Amino acid sequence: QVQLVESGGGLVQTGGSLRLSCASSANIFSSTTLGWYRQAPGKQRELVASGTGGYTKYATFAKGRFTISRNNADDTVDLQMNNLKPEDTAVYYCYAKWSDVRKAWGQGTQVTVSS
Question: What pLDDT, in 10s, does the model give residues 67-76?
């Protein structure tokens, strides 16, 4: 059973920054899709950013403010979040996909942005 463990969430003021980290218990390869999703209260889970190999994509709200980065040697993926806004408040989840039958989600980490 693969485990993804997130860290780095917390409370920050509007305009502040947070860096989320996710560590995988299984090896990560360049072909592994890694991503961050978020879910705000009463809303569906949505993509924040994801990447496979050298290709990355961002949600519109994340472009220019958030950066996803990965370290395959350390089996980690991070999400740097800058210029945070109250609407970024959500539980953030790490995601990894090795194949159609091998996927994993982290337990989630709370990010709260105060106005």
Answer: 999 999 999 9
